[in-house]
Specification:
By secondary structure, the chain is mainly α. It has helices spanning 3-12, 21-34, 43-59, 68-76, 83-95, 99-109, 114-129, 135-149. The longest helix is centred in the middle third of the chain and has 17 residues, at 43-59.
Length: 151
């Protein structure tokens, strides 16, 4: 599978209420398995793929359970420096609040120190305090925020 086919499949993939968690996992596992090595992608290609994956999250119910096939796939795209991923993760979380995006943010914070760590923890706090997000998303963000400031 080439990048364009993967992007088309992701753009067309919509989770519905009848879908089981394993079906979502199988979809993202198949995409990850069938794509060539993402480390060989250009920065532009990585940017495009990461953006399509965040667009996928935006189209879903914000309370969609986190899916670790999705999480591991998106986190692996921009290793080891994560510059593209970090930028998109911060942007997404300042504009959207979802269960998955707050988990991604919390996982990312675990590897940070100093001012950068504080900046991202503040994003968790802003999600927790944002009344436009669901109570469940806000509670999840608050839990991650409390966990991070307690470290």
């Amino acid at each position: 599978m080439n990048l364009e086919n993967a992007i088309t499949q992701i753009k067309n993939f919509q989770v519905n209420g009848d879908m089981e968690d394993y079906e979502i996992s199988e979809f993202f596992d198949a995409i990850g398995d069938e794509l060539p090595d993402v480390n060989s992608f250009t920065d532009s290609q990585k940017q495009q793929l990461i953006q399509v994956l965040f667009d996928f999250l935006k189209r879903q119910d914000p309370e969609l359970d986190e899916n670790f096939s999705f999480i591991h796939f998106i986190e692996a795209i921009n290793q080891p420096d994560y510059k593209i991923y970090n930028t998109e993760l911060l942007k997404f979380n300042t504009e959207n609040g979802t269960i998955t995006s707050t988990l991604l943010l919390n996982r990312f914070i675990n590897g940070l120190v100093g001012e950068e760590r504080k900046k991202y923890i503040d994003v968790l706090k802003s999600i927790a305090e944002n009344p436009s997000y669901t109570d469940f998303v806000r509670a999840e963000a608050l839990g991650y925020y409390e966990h991070q400031i307690g470290k």
